[in-house]
Amino acid sequence: MTSIRPLRVGLIGCGRISDIYLQNCQRFPEIEVSACASLTLEESRAKARQWGIETACLPEDIFADLEIDAVLNLTIPAAHAEISLQALAAGKHVYSEKPFATNLDDGLRILALAKEKQRLVGNAPDTFLGGRWQTLRKALDQGLIGKPTGAMVFVGTHGVERHHPNPDFYYQQGGGPLLDLGPYYLTALVFLLGPIARASGLARRTFDKRMIDNGPRQGQWMPVEIDTHSLSLLEFESGAIGSMTMSFDVWDSETPRLEIYGEKGTLCIADPDPVHGANIFQGPVLYRLQEHSRWSHQPRPQGRDHWLEVENTHGFNEDYRGLGLLDLAYAVQQHRPVRASGQLAQHVVEVMQGILEAPAKGGFVTIHSRCERPEPLPEDFPNARSEVAGRAA
Ligand SMILES: NC(=O)c1ccc[n+]([C@@H]2O[C@H](COP(=O)([O-])OP(=O)(O)OC[C@H]3O[C@@H](n4cnc5c(N)ncnc54)[C@H](O)[C@@H]3O)[C@@H](O)[C@H]2O)c1
């Protein structure tokens, strides 16, 4: 049962990530994927057959289809901006995979056109809408660890060639660990701590070529055009400070994925999953307060010398990619901002560009864009429908 009219969506980009989106869209009665397109009709047809999508076509057919409300842009990073701009020009709302754009100017053009056309722009990642991140945000907002003072993020992987059959684009301009993984964590950090005011960074490349290690192309070498080990320093507008490591060059590590430090304690996501890190929707949120810390004079209470777990209060505790599109479907009908918004994504792009440019600029880069700290999801979203139904009535 849904109280909103389904959003009619045209998918552009029928590659690897589209399956989880299509699987989840079939779970959301608020979304109806009526057409799919890619670079070739063969690819579009195969995807349409697989998921029972009515129309298989090319991108221009989706732009021309007056029945389609929104474009789901799951193309490769280099094509994101052009597809989003064409969709907006055709009067569609847009929800795109990350990164929002591969340069700031393209991002600004997308936001300007969306404003002119009065259309909504949403952007992945939407992992921060998952139960783990919403639980973490609630704990912060309720003051569990006091005023947040800092953050640490670490994701050390050995790239994507073990699991992606066509990983070339991850090692070309627009790819790399910062642009690929950074959006998950920077978006989550902005959701948790607010916008970033200054950024700096250092990066290096360990391998000039890498071997595809799965699928039909196993054994083929790919050139590496970008840096694959990136360190960043972040200063939030709130005064909190953070560090972030994103790497495709680390074989293993025991460093926790993400910690938030506060005046009264620490919140921690200590995810041992070496492939996905904490860029997933679900998982425990741990905390330890001042009185139970190793620095306390008080003896630690029995059984309290370990990390405690924050009770999870939210839904969407599995891979719910597309949840941001569901939020956009409601935003369209409720005339409210999207949570995983284009403004948030553009801010993240500017921060990443600042991190990449910092070594050449020899210091910190000031971040000019600002975005709202996104509203938390209601605990019973999307069943919190009475508001929508009430307005509609
Ligand atoms: N694969 C993953 O695990 C994963 C995870 C998270 C996010 N993403 C993001 O999702 C996006 C897509 O990744 P993927 O792994 O599905 O890629 P992919 O290479 O498997 O598929 C890309 C699809 O886009 C289409 N395409 C490319 N250029 C196009 C253009 N100019 N016009 C129309 N269609 C075009 C291709 O035909 C193909 O269908 C990327 O931005 C990536 O960063 C991927």
Characteristics:
10 helices; six-stranded parallel beta sheet; Dihydrodipicolinate Reductase, domain 2; alpha/beta; Rossmann fold; nine-stranded mixed beta sheet; 393 residues; binds nicotinamide-adenine-dinucleotide; disordered C terminus; 21% strand
Your description of this structure?
The chain is α/β, with parallel strands linked by helices and 393 residues long. The chain has 2 domains: 7-123, NAD(P)-binding Rossmann-like Domain (Rossmann fold, 3-Layer(aba) Sandwich), CATH 3.40.50; 129-309, Dihydrodipicolinate Reductase, domain 2, CATH 3.30.360. Helix content is 30%, strand content 21%. It has helices at 18-25, 41-51, 59-64, 77-89, 104-117, 131-141, 177-193, 323-334, 342-361, 386-392, and strands at 7-12, 31-37, 55-57, 70-73, 93-96, 121-123, 148-156, 196-204, 209-211, 221-223, 229-236, 241-247, 258-262, 265-269, 286-289, 308-309, 365-366. It has a 9-stranded mixed β-sheet with strand order 16-15-14-13-7-12-11-8-17, with helices on one face. A 6-stranded parallel β-sheet has the order 3-2-1-4-5-6, with helices on both faces. A two-stranded antiparallel ribbon has the order 9-10. The two termini are 16 Å apart. Bound molecules: nicotinamide-adenine-dinucleotide. Nicotinamide-adenine-dinucleotide is lined by residues 12-18, 38-39, 43, 59, 74-77, 79, 83, 97, 164, 166. Nicotinamide-adenine-dinucleotide binds at residues 12-18, 38-39, 43, 59, 74-77, 79, 83, 97, 164, 166.
Summarize the topology.
Elements: E1 7-12, H1 18-25, E2 31-37, H2 41-51, E3 55-57, H3 59-64, E4 70-73, H4 77-89, E5 93-96, H5 104-117, E6 121-123, H6 131-141, E7 148-156, H7 177-193, E8 196-204, E9 209-211, E10 221-223, E11 229-236, E12 241-247, E13 258-262, E14 265-269, E15 286-289, E16 308-309, H8 323-334, H9 342-361, E17 365-366, H10 386-392
Parallel strand pairs: 1-2, 1-4, 2-3, 4-5, 5-6, 7-12
Antiparallel strand pairs: 7-13, 8-11, 8-17, 9-10, 11-12, 13-14, 14-15, 15-16
Helix pairs in contact: 4-5, 5-9, 7-9
The structure holds nicotinamide-adenine-dinucleotide (NAD).
